[in-house]
Amino acid sequence: MAFYTLGIETSCDETSVAVLRDEREMLSNIVYSQAHLHEKYGGVVPEVASRNHIKKLPFVVKEALDQAGISFSDISLVGATYGPGLVGPLLVGLSYAKAVAYALKKPFVGVNHLEGHIFAHYLENPNAPPPFLALVVSGGHTLLVEVRAYGQYEVLGETRDDAAGEAFDKVGKLLGLGYPAGAALDRLARQGNPQAIAFPRPMLDSDSWEFSFAGLKTAIVYYLRDHPEANRADLAASFQEAVVDVLVEKTLRAARQLHIKRIVVVGGVAANSRLRERLLAQKNFEVFFPKMELCTDNAAMIAACAAFRHRVLGQSNALDLAPHPNLALTP
Prior knowledge:
Elements lengths: L3 E6 L4 E8 L3 E9 L1 H4 L7 H23 L8 E7 L3 H18 L3 E5 H12 L7 E6 L4 E8 L2 E7 L5 H11 L7 H8 L24 H13 L5 H27 L3 E5 L6 H8 L5 E3 L3 H4 L3 H13 L20
């Protein structure tokens, strides 16, 4: 008998619902972006995001079930993100998921959003299991993780300040690219010279596996102040190259030191064309990126993680599980 998992993701400004059959068969993965609502503010407004999740979530759930060809009565498990993220948006998705689980008398699993990103690889590449080194790069997080097995993680290093995706958005705003700026900056950078401006590579020469991008963002601010007529494409390309240099070199250095041959890159910044180009060119490592729809926040990865944790690890959570906006990948 088929096992159906309903996954819900509302940690920031995407309302996403997915249905998985068994552990890897994706029957639907609906993502409703709120980017157009937040663009005029230059970033996500938590209250606006929360209210829009409340408004849209029931309709997105219906669309996901219809696309999967099932009804509420067919659901075997409900999974939802409970952290990290914005507390209001998290509360909306979590409350809805728990209500569905309670009404259907089905088990519920709260999912760590960061682990969810790792499960984007689990969904797409069943023939490339752990151990591997995961570079998790999203709007709010940048971290290197040794994945010994699914559910067994050691965080080697993370950002001390701005995440890579956060830096992309902030620099994109300085360049007048709107919000979110990652994809637009990537497109602009393809028209520029990545060697045009020598921006710093923060912590590149450090023995630490941690990251820092706030100083690089400040360097862009000062450069624009002193060179207001600078070519925007060259500036975008030079900034992007600095970020990618740091991400690539630290990832490869960690993989070599740990003698790991498989590298997995997940999260929104995994969609960046230059990062993909640089890492996929490596000959001494197997490198994997999810398809684009699984890079950004989505409920399919949350459903996959919930199904694994319930069916393989035997986990289920009580319905009083609270949102945890600062949840870490490991205790």
